[in-house]
Amino acid sequence: MNPATDPLGPSHIAGIAWPPLVEAQIPQLPPLMQKLERTQWLAPHELRASQHRQLAVLAAHAQNHSPHFRARLHDAGLQPQDLSSPEGLRRLPLLTRRELQSAGQALFCTQLPATHQPLAETQTSGSSGEPVVVKRTAISQLFWMAETLREHLWQQRDFSGTLAVIRANYPAGAPEHHASWGAPTSVMFRTGPSHAMRITTDVAQQAEWLARIDPHYLLTYPTNLGALLSQIERCGIRLPRLRQIRTIGETLGTPVREAARSVLGVEIADTYSSQEVGVIALQCPHSGLYHIMAESLIVEVLDEHGMPCAPGQIGRIVLTDLHNLATPLVRYAINDYAEVGAACPCGRGLPTLKRIVGRERNMLLLPDGRRHWPLVGFDKYRSIAPIRQYQLIQRDRERIEVRLVAATALTATQETQLGALIHTALGHPFQLSFVYFDGEIPRSAGGKFDEFVCEARE
User: Environment class of residue 178 by beta-carbon count within 10 Å: exposed (0-12), middle (13-18) or buried (19+)?
Assistant: First the structure.
């Protein structure tokens, strides 16, 4: 398609061909929402053509300004325009988390159009226990806001209701109260109040808090939700105003969905996302399938031979961020697995995943019997030592095995510093034992990897 005749209009942002944007500021959120309302109904072949048109533009920028990406193209014998088709993209070898780690500053683009600034830096361990750093742009943030709002609108939520949030990015201490739901919802809509609690709060306290505020909507992580539902059921707590639960950050299993229905009588709307690329897929309100956010990402699901999986097959997820001109994440293997879905009966052309597997974390068990979601302090590990991968195994109520892959052996001082950091993050002075691995920490027999595993018994 000729960009000048794109029915969505021309783009005025350097490096962005599709969907077209005028600027990256918050006032552009309503126009972008209108464009996404149209693009979601495009036929799959139209979406693919537009995706690869945008990818060729991004690849040209990254070839000029990212030493690491330029080397990737050269080594594969490719030019940016070669990525303008699915077949050409598959000729580019995958970018692994380990490679992303080791690339350092060479990964990032040395120049960025002013319209893509300011930059924000995010660090994440994902589901593999391998911390990575990614720079994200104002364009990345704009698409995150638009896709978050898309999820609200798909689910037809009542913005006048009360929202409760239990997640990691809140300070320890007393729960917070806010007059609105916050960005991006409050940017476009008048909302009711919201309440927020840190995820490391004891589950019994979480349940008591929810009973007091009786929210219309609850957002938290699936593992935490499972423990919370058990506590609510044991204590006979009722949440009569609750209409829906939103889950993020981990794999949502069928048992938790069923528990939400039986204990609270509500459904769960799940979001598949990552810190590196933002929203990956949203659950369809009609079918329950996960619609891939094709306007901002190319999502490949590959078999063991690197070929695309058919509907019903489970494969490795590979992501290409179409708009991040600061960090070229092209064919990035995020270490998740998913089952490919069929065309959705809702009529949207957005590709689907039937289910996502391999992201569940375990709950920490404290010596006094309390349980909570474990923050393990991973974001500061590499400031102490060159740690490439980690995993914590809770053997019993007092002992935790710290498994590490590091570029060089840790000194006694580094082990002491790391131990202190873990104690602070977990909230208890567990007995720590350090075990080192070469190359990679082994996965489970089922091929999964959890950064925290609890083997302790209640």
Answer: middle
Domain count for the chain: 2
Provide, for the chain, the percentages of residues in helix, strand and coil under a 3-state DSSP scheme, each rounded to the nearest 5: 35, 25, 45
pLDDT number for residue 10: 85
392 φ, ψ to 5°? -110, 125
Q: How far is CA 377 from CA 38, 381, 408, 415, 419, in A?
A: 42, 7, 20, 14, 10
Specify the length of the chain in residues.
458
Tokens of 341: 């879905």
Tell me the pLDDT tens digit for each residue of 306-327: 999 999 999 999 999 999 999 9
Other CB atoms within a 10 A radius of the CB of residue 74 amount to 11
Strands (E) in 347-406, as ranges, are: 352-357, 364-365, 371-372, 387-394, 399-406
Listed in sequence order, the DSSP H helices in 77-188 are 86-89, 97-103, 138-154, 185-188
Q: What is the pLDDT of residues 1-45, one digit of tens each?
A: 544 456 788 888 999 999 999 877 888 899 999 999 999 999 999
User: Which CATH number is 70's domain given?
Assistant: 3.40.50.12780
Six-digit token pair at 196? 């927020």
Question: What is the span of the domain harbouring residue 408?
Answer: 364-454
117 shares a domain with 32: yes
Rounded to whole angstroms, the Cα distance separating 153 from 156 reads 5
Q: Assign 448 a pLDDT band (cuts: 50, 70, 90).
A: low
Enclosing H/E stretch for 120: strand 120-124
